[in-house]
Amino acid sequence: MNYRHEFHAGNFADVVKHAVLCRILAYLREKPAPFRVIDTHAGSGLYDLTGPEAIRTGEWQNGIGRLLNGDATPGPAVLAMPEAARALLAPYLDAIAALNIGGRLTIYPGSPMLVRALLRRRSRRRVNSPGLSSSSPRVRRGSSNRSPYGRIGNAR
Asked: What CATH number corresponds to the domain at position 49?
């Protein structure tokens, strides 16, 4: 099967999956013990929402594009939510906003980048990207333990 997630990054399924992942990680960070995250089917660390693949399908506009405005600030859908719901989404939305510093929603983080953003120093992660070449720049940017973006959000 030939599947390239660049065409689907940031869609409604990603929003649900990544919001839940961020909530789980935020909960684990409240515990004193370190934890390990093993992502057996990780995609790229970062996705370009202005790239030809994302533009071709536009799926992100009905996913993360419905939650965040074009400037990566909370959109009407988030602002209309009860405060408790906004608090649940905060780690996820904060990580996305931290990557989109230029004032536009142009980058969407994949699970490797979200996990990296929410790990504590003593916690670890293992990322496996089946089907992706290790020479791919999309993989190199987000799959190592080092990133040009450093830690994102409220990571300690």
From this structure: 3.40.50.150
In total, how many domains does the chain have?
1
Nearest to 3 by CA among 37, 40, 44: 44
- Reference 147, options 99, 97, 82, 76; nearest CA is 99
Q: What is the pLDDT of residue 108?
A: 94
Q: If you ran DSSP here, which 8-state letter would residue 81 be given? A: S
Residue 153 included in any domain: no
| Cβ atoms of residues 101 and 109 within 8 Å | no
User: How is residue 78 written in tokens?
Assistant: 């988030």
Lowest-pLDDT range of 14-18, 41-45, 140-144:
140-144
The span from the CA of 13 to the CA of 60, in Å, is 10
pTM of the model: 0.79
Count of all residues that appear for the chain in the document: 156
DSSP string, 39-67: ETT---SEEETTSHHHHHH-GGGGTHHHH
